Amino acid sequence: MSELPDHVRRNRAAWDRVAADYAVRVEGQWALDEPSWGIWGTPESQLGMLSEPLAGKDVIELGCGTAYVSAWLKRRGARVVGIDNSERQLETARRMQQRFGLDFPLLHGNAETVPLPEASFDFAISEYGACLWADPAAWVPEAARLLRPGGALVFLTNSYLMTLCVPEQDGVAATERLLRSGFGMYRFEWPGDESVEFHLSHSDWIALLRSSGFEIEALIDVRPPAEATTQYPFVTLDWARQWPCEEVWKVRRRR
Ligand SMILES: C[S@@+](CC[C@H](N)C(=O)[O-])C[C@H]1O[C@@H](n2cnc3c(N)ncnc32)[C@H](O)[C@@H]1O
Fold first, then answer.
1. What does pTM read for this prediction?
2. Which residues, at least 6 apart from 93, have a Cβ–Cβ distance to it below 8 Å?
3. Res 2: pLDDT
4. Which of 11, 98, 212, 249 could form a disulfide with 144 if both were Cys (CB 3.0 to 4.6 A apart)?
5. Is 247 helix (H, G, I), strand (E, B) or coil?
6. Does ligand 1 lie within 6 Å of residue 130's CB atom?
7. pLDDT digits (tens, 9 = 90+) for 119-156
8. Which residues touch 99 (CB under 8 Å, ≥6 apart)?
């Protein structure tokens, strides 16, 4: 464990610690026929995260956690592999595999260095997984390495705008004020929290994605449905209906 980068070691400890509580709500996600995304359960029909043809394709979920996204991919006929940094999260995923009778490989490891050959996959996805908790300078080029030319990467994470507006105090929702500089955003360590997050400005995402071999096809500002609810305290529905609190990037490996 000592050879892991500091943020990977810390995030492993953090996710191992919360995994049992997190597991309580995932069975419903596993049971869904129609995917719903992010903290508001925004429907797939609105975001098209899985709009690629996936049947028979090789796909990987980077930071799969409890692997309900991988389950949705498997049901769409994909050959899916999930990788996650937390063995406790993967225990939940394995339990769900048994519960729902779905089997696919789950790797315990760091999505920044995946122990699989280059050009192994047609599609890579992350929903609040590696795209939030892994170092973009490492996981984005690694995703490019894993994808075949023409392969797609789709990820959903906190929006740039909301990250500017969230107070440091735990449990306090995003404000209508810009609380930090929009320049140089990268690694975040919130007070009292052992985990490490990564948030980039749009221009920094674009520069990194392009220099890693991706073309950008879409950046979607997620607007939750009017009646949506969330258990997360860092943003209100009123805020999220006015400004995007989540964003989806759809990019494609250059041919
Ligand atoms: C919010 S969960 C998202 C996964 C999935 N959508 C879910 O909700 O179960 C975040 C996951 O990212 C994983 N993670 C964090 N850093 C990682 C890394 N460097 N490599 C792979 N997984 C990582 C955590 O272990 C955790 O299971």
1. 0.98
2. 64, 65, 66, 67, 70, 82, 84, 106
3. 54
4. 212
5. strand
6. yes
7. 999 999 999 999 999 999 999 999 999 999 999 999 99
8. 27, 30
| 3-class DSSP string for 88-118 | HHHHHHHHHHHHHCCCCCEEECCCCCCCCCC
Token pair for 107? 């790797």
Place of tokens 């449905």: 225
Closest C-alpha among 255, 220, 242 to residue 38: 220
Q: Does ligand 1 have an atom closer than 6 angstroms to the CB of 8?
A: yes
Q: What would the two tokens of residue 11 be? A: 């995030």
- The C-alpha atoms of residue 250 and residue 49 are separated, in whole angstroms, by 8
> Across residues 46-51, what is the average pLDDT?
98
Per-residue confidence band for 100, with pLDDT thresholds at 50, 70 and 90: very high
Strands (E), the chain: 36-37, 42-43, 58-62, 79-84, 106-108, 121-127, 147-158, 187-188, 197-198, 214-222, 246-253
> Is any ligand 1 atom within 6 A of the Cβ of residue 83?
yes
pLDDT at 107: 98
Q: What is the mean predicted confidence (pLDDT) over 227-237?
A: 96
Ligand 1 atom nearest 16 alpha carbon: 25
pLDDT tens-digit series, residues 73-93:
999 999 999 999 999 999 999
